[in-house]
Amino acid sequence: MSLALYGEITAKQGAIEQSNYHDYPVMRIGAAPETHVHIVESKELSGGVGEPGQPPVAPALCNAIYAATGKRIRELPVSKHNLAKA
């Protein structure tokens, strides 16, 4: 969700401006939405469980913004858009 909301890397005179987390915003735990994890039994081989849920976050967020405001977000990060006026 950090990437969808804030994730932007910018360059100035050919150099990346962000050097670390002090100037590259990431979502802090207090700002993150509540999440629920459900372990589902399976006879399949074990594998990663955290990554599959990540790709749909940005599209789901943008669709929720559209449903609430009528403003279609077609470029990330969402923070680049002036949603206060939407």
TrEMBL record:
It comes from Entotheonella factor. GO terms for molecular function: oxidoreductase activity. This is Aldehyde oxidase/xanthine dehydrogenase second molybdopterin binding domain-containing protein. Coiled coil: none annotated. PANTHER family: ALDEHYDE DEHYDROGENASE, BLR6219 PROTEIN. SUPFAM superfamilies: Molybdenum cofactor-binding domain (SSF56003).
